[in-house]
Amino acid sequence: MSKEAKAFDYCKSPDGHDMLQKFGVLFKPTALTAFAVSTIDVILYSHPKGYLQTLARYIHFSAPIFGATFAFVAGSNVAGSLRRKDDKLNWFIGGASSGAVVGVWRKSVMGGFVAAVALGLLAVGKKHCIQNDYDMFIPRDLTFQYGGLRSVRQDWTLMKHRPGNWTTGSDQ
Fold this sequence. Notes:
The chain has helices spanning 19-46, 51-83, 88-106, 109-131. It is an all-alpha fold. Helix 1 runs antiparallel to helix 2, helix 2 runs antiparallel to helix 3 (88-106) and helix 3 (88-106) packs antiparallel against helix 4. The longest helix has 33 residues, at 51-83. Its main location: mitochondrion. It is a multi-pass membrane protein. It is found in: Mitochondrion inner membrane.
């Protein structure tokens, strides 16, 4: 018998448990964000010459993004494990630790402090939204028109299926 693999939900397990799975959940959006930010820098701003300089620019931007993600997951889960509570303070600690990574990357104590407070408050707001079951930025129940630009069911073939009772016009 085969079991269906269920997607791991970050918020279903309390803080302090399943740290590796939680980092795995955040790995894909972190990788996409790091790649996008690094590509924007290479193409629009820094214009490095050669492969090694380009790779160095990608690492320069990707490493702190991954570090901040790891710091959030580790900070919130270690705080939850030590405090034995699943509340907003754990997420503030996680956000503040990722802000500290930003400060180290920018080599600025004041920038790190501001980033720690801002990311800590943002994390508290997100935890509040999760606990009260509403969305912070993008609603989860967006409906898309069939074949719309943002639809997941895109069919770019030449002979795509016509939904409903649509015809090609040659049936008449």
